[in-house]
Amino acid sequence: MRLIRLEPQPSRVADDVRAALAALGRGSAAAGGVALVGARPLPNRQPLEAVVILPRIVLVVIGVDLPDPAIRLEAPLTGRWKADGWPLVADAETPNPAGEALGLAEMVIERLRPEVPEHVPIATIIAVGPFVEEIEQPPGDLGGGVRVLFPTQRSLLAAIASLTPAPWPCTPAQAHALIGALAPDARITGDDLAAEGFQTTEESATVTLPAVEPPPRKPRPSASAPLPPIAPPAEVTMPVPRIPAAIPAPRSSIPWRPVAAIAIVFVLVVAAVVIAVGGSGDEPGAAPPSSAAPPAPARQAVAGVAFTERASGTARTCAASAYGDLQAQLQVGGCAGMERGSFEASVDGRPVAVSVAVLTFAGDEQAAAFKELADTPGSGGITDLATETHQWPREPDVDGAVYRSAISGPAVRLVLAAHLDGRSSPDDPVLIRAAGAALGVRIP
User: Fold this and answer.
1) Model confidence, pTM
2) Of 41, 91, 286, 346, whose CB count within 10 A is highest?
3) Cβ count within 10 A of residue 347
4) Of 49, 220, 218, whose CA–CA distance to 124 is shortest?
5) Residue 127: helix, strand or coil by DSSP?
6) What is the pLDDT of residue 298?
7) CA nearest 128: which of 8, 3, 303, 306?
8) Any idea what DSSP says for residue 340?
């Protein structure tokens, strides 16, 4: 997939669209084709997130920003959308936030149809964000040419595979004519297009095309939909798993020391070389174990924000890590377990300290009561793990930190975002973006 950037796109989810397209890599191994990022097929309308010209299908990609991240999105094309059970639009005349995008897609397809070879279909991708773990489309909608998805490399490949592609690919000349109509200044050659899977008429006649199976009629699109036979490269935007209903068992107190290395220390006791605090050991004169160096901090990206882990851990009790009224409530009611993670986020080049705590309770009602108290100003909070263990390179300015919370069944997620290089403010757009993205970050 070759990316050609044209105009800036209007949506926040556009960053994830670009990352997902870039993750497909160059050449036709995964999907092939050319993505015109920020193309404007209609001069009097806004630019699109992308027009993706693949050898056997053309995709019109339009972004739709949701108010908040969601675990589960119900997204019927003509009905009301619900995020985690809550309606996204209250106006009965506008049942979902994709109505305008679908109207725009119809006009774009009408504009492109004369430029696209007759045998090549044009489909629509509604890219939603800032993050959605699971999207449900009715079976009837999945039979058409529109897919609603959170843009990742895998979700794009699954959508391409589930749509009905052309029986034979476009020629480089046909693709070049379409690209020229949308991006006259784009510099791309016939050899470039051939490398992306576009074939001449003679080549197409000698190619045995794989059978394309129709998509399964399921209530929701599956991440395991049929994919091209060559394994795609690793994803750029990492999907985040559902907030667990139960907390996993506590991690070992020596997470970075492999058991084998510790065993060698005791076997080779004659060497008398032991590193304190449960570290690994080496026999004199021998090469150090390859696992002696700790791995690099885990990194992930959510909604276009990069997160680097500074500390993470689990506990079976919560009160000891809380303060204020939250601690008092946890001392009385307890919890089923807690996960904490501290991350350094990068937003517009600025470092942000992000503290995430996920508390799981015995039932949904107890979780809702805890979240209500946590959302009350002055009720206290959960101690940041990196602050507790002195992992920050410099102290975050938490006085003006941005707070966000979310609930999923019995699990409550609390987020604080503060600047590492200056004063924090609750209305700071950098901190607001970091805190919102952290609602979908995965705690390792």
Assistant:
1) 0.50
2) 41
3) 20
4) 49
5) strand
6) 83
7) 303
8) E
